[in-house]
Amino acid sequence: MVLGRGPEGAATLTRQPPRSALLLVRRISDYMADLFERVRASLAGRYTIERELGRGGMATVYLARDLKHDRPVALKVLRPELAAVLGAERFLREIRLTAQLQHPHILTLLDSGDAGGFLYYVMPFVEGESLRQRLERERQLPLDEALRLTRAIASALDFAHGRGVVHRDIKPENIMLHQGEPMVADFGIALAVSTAGRERLTETGLSPGTPAYMSPEQASAEPRLDGRSDQYSLACVLYEMLAGEPPYTGPTAQAVLAKRLTEPIPHLGTLRGVPPAVEAAVTKALAKAPPDRFATAHAFVLALTAGSTRGTHPRWRSASAALAVVIVIGGAVAWFRASRGSKGGHNLSNVAPFTSSPGAKFGPVFSPDGNEIAYAWKGENEDNFDIYIKLIGAGGPLRLTSNAAGEYCPAWSPDGRNIAFFRKWPWSDRGAYYIIPALGGTERKIAEQYGQDVVFGRCIDWSRDGKSLIVADKMAPEDSRSSILLLSIEDGQRTALVSQPDLYIANPILSPDGTGVAYIQGAGFLAGDIYVVPVSGGRPRRVTSDGRTLNGIAWTADGREIVFASNRGGLWRLWRVPASGGTPEPVSGAGDGAAAPAIAPRGNRLAYVQARVDANLWQAAGPGWKGRRPAPLKLIASSRWDFEGAFSPDGQRIAFGSDRSGSVEIWTCNGDGTNQTQLTSLKAADAGTPRWSPDGKTIAFDARLEGHGDIFTISAEGGTPHRLTSDPVENNVPAWSRDGKWIYFSSNRTGNWQIWKVPSAGGSAIQVTTDGGFSAQESPDGKSLYVWRDGGTIWRARPSGEETTRVLQGVPVFAWWRVFPGGIYFVDGSTAPAQVRFLDFATERVNTITTLDLGYSVTGPWGFDVSPDGKWILYKRVDQVESDIMLVEDFR
Q: Whose CB among 107, 255, 260, 851 lies 3.0–4.6 Å from 123's, allowing a Cys bridge?
């Protein structure tokens, strides 16, 4: 008798096989040994095949060494019969697309090829175990752990689904655990298999998927599968993590599939006590028909945690609803000021304040007859933003909304009867679109918001027939594409006019004749252009071509021009450009800080926001302070914007950014704030992020001389800046290596944000990371590189970018952390006041050091540093925020 495994992996006791079976086993063993040697010979020179790791229905996986990069890898060789069906050309073409799946919880494709008739692909070798191995050891996982793993896996699946890739074989064997973090493997075969077609695979006797985790539609050989099939499989995996077995089991694969198609959905609660929300979510995700499941894996995860009081740190603090606007505008409405009396261009006359009450106001929009303006205002109590309307020339404002959340972006319907708006909850990651009668009344929710928050300018408009809202959003929560959408007010149905992957899209505005939508598109908020897309469909047409910071756009009443706000001249002002394209010209007379323009459909009126923001650099006692802590001190101040302070290596000097000279430049001063001196004079270049070299003689910074970010260095004593990058892409956030030979920076030159480095003396840039990153800092000993990724996590890697490990989460801003010997100081903006915390490398514990009052904002433009001796913390505080709506009569 021997111990073996049944179809579901259960141990079974069987009799010794007859001699014929032993001969068959021996032949198979000889064949696999011969295959091993043939694969080894075919790949000699590129990979050294060390040993077989395992075999699956589609491929054999080997532990190999990548000779070029001297690293262990997992090399998968497709079974010969599968390779014959797919064909080398088809397989290699399709699998290349999976190289785009760069996600923290997806095993990345490193290489693929055809060698000696073998089709193979290569993934990182994960040191750890599979989820299957852990379940064999523990059988059931704690609820919190199972939900944590599910959330991470779901994020990977939604990421892939947004790029049109369905995995088709989610199971514990394909989920690797690296230092506790799940990594989804084998996306490599999914695309090629789906392209080849199931009929051709059937000829080989092979079939993607595993019976215990296969969705009913996949088991029924449905030709087209979507992300809901993977969602079903993920629900099966979660079920097993909690119950100790998959939802359907049986002695054979056929028995399992028969149960799945005919028996009722099993209830998790009969096997283990779980919260009602978890059982309900799992049951829904296991629905036999895809339409009865959740729309996305992300929605499944949200339902799993419904009613839970725990969650991620809120991104905004309740005490400052203004932060959503004022600081999103952080670089926008009033970061910089517009110039007065510019030469040339168009001049405004009859400019007068439309509002003069205290507090911030944003997003003005005219009624269809041009006699009223709707806008967002914090109100006299300055508690949170609500929607108000005010008649031009008489009376006070009428308040339309009174929700505890913030409301922004009002938009009048074409008939003037309703106003659409956007609502954002302070503790939520998303908002929603609503409409309300223009005279007040019951509001109605139209749809959830999935994209980035853009609450300045105009983020909502109406279609000409009044049946749809026009918004900049996403088709689904985890869709990587930003889109201009028509949002049906009847049922919330989304129709995309234009979709672009990994781009910033904002401020959609319908043309006066209703045929086109103007909008802003670019690599990010700081690098946008104006486009127009036909409502009837078609390719967008580019109006501007210099990639500048834009804040709000508006059509002139005749549709011939577009007016917009930009700091392309160094300061914020209004500009106008022919709608057909051309050279923008300034609109003079708008005053300081002009932004978010709106033009009346009738009456020759223009409205815009004029903002006044005073931001300064403050100093507070740090962790190294001994004795009684002094009160925080305003160290570097002006009536303008001072931000991004950085201590020199000896702590005796400070570099910072400021627009006090009329353009955003790099300045320096003594450590006590005296001797403030302008270092750069780049004009119109938005210089920022100053970083001292290890010897304190040079300062690196980023600036936008040609409409995109580049890295520069300059002597700390002044002089001519030295440009290190010149590619027509974004290059931002410099950081020195500890030996001073390299400068790390973030760049989107590969299509997504990664960390690169360039010699500080000049030379070619080298890519460091492949799995994402937006800011980086070397450890004091130079042996590790710490990388901040979107989502607020910090990862440790080698300086070469390899062997990444997550060390910290809950850091909401890329500039709010500093690496010191022994740990990381960072700002947690989820509380009021914000907290400075410290991650101790030795104990892996996080302790609170002190609190900071950041004023009106908890996000950028940023400022946080700790002096080398730990005695002082330098941070940016917004001390005053005021904005009013200005009205221009007889605008031409």
A: 107
Q: Using CB atoms within 10 A of its CB, is residue 625 exposed (0-12), middle (13-18) or buried (19+)?
A: middle
Binned at pLDDT 50, 70 and 90, residue 697 comes out as very high
Query: DSSP letters of 40-91?
Result: HHHTTTTEEEEEEEEE-SSEEEEEEEETTTTEEEEEEEE-HHHHHHH-HHHH
- Note the pLDDT of residue 311: 30
The pLDDT assigned to 26 comes to 47
**pLDDT, tens only, 140-173:** 999 989 998 998 898 789 878 877 888 888 999 9
Q: DSSP letter string over 212-241?
A: GG--HHHHTT-S---HHHHHHHHHHHHHHH
* DSSP H or E run through 30: helix 19-42
Q: Yes or no: say if 671 and 652 are a contact pair by the CB < 8 Å rule.
A: yes
Contact between 864 and 857 (Cβ < 8 Å)? no
Distance CA 597, CA 659 (A): 22
**Partner residues linked to 823 by β-bridges:** 820, 840
Q: Say if residue 558's pLDDT is above 90.
A: yes
Instruction: Round the average pLDDT of the chain to a whole number and report it.
Output: 83
* Residue percentage of the chain with pLDDT more than 90: 45
DSSP 315: S
Nearest to 129 by CA among 138, 120, 119: 138
pLDDT at 718 over 60: yes
Tokens of 569: 């001249």
Write the DSSP symbol of residue 656.
E
List CB contacts of 245: < 8 A, sequence separation 6 or more.
8, 271
- Which amino acid, one-letter code, is at 481? R
Own/partner long-range contacts of 493-500 (Cβ < 8 Å, ≥24 apart): 494/447, 495/468, 497/533, 497/534, 497/535, 497/537, 498/531, 498/533, 498/540, 499/475
Please give the span between the terminal C-alpha atoms of the chain, in angstroms, as a whole number: 95
3-state secondary structure of 94: helix
Question: What one-character DSSP code corresponds to residue 763?
Answer: -
**List of domains in the chain:** 2-304 (1.10.510.10), 323-607 (2.120.10.30), 614-882 (2.120.10.30)
Q: Which amino acid is located at 173 in the chain?
A: E
Find the mean pLDDT for residues 103-109: 80
Q: Do residues 447 and 487 touch, judged by C-beta distance below 8 A?
A: yes
CA dihedral over 518, 519, 522, 525, signed as positive or negative: positive
d(CA 582, CA 561): 10
pLDDT, residue 322, reads 34
Cβ neighbours, 10 Å, residue 442:
6
Residue 532 has pLDDT above 80, yes or no: yes
**Share of residues in the chain with pLDDT > 70 (%):** 85
Checking if the pLDDT of 312 tops 60, the result is no
> How far, in Å, CA of 386 to CA of 407, rounded?
5
Task: Give the tens place of pLDDT for each residue, 587-605.
Answer: 887 766 788 999 999 878 9
**CA-derived radius of gyration, the chain:** 30
3-state secondary structure of 117: coil
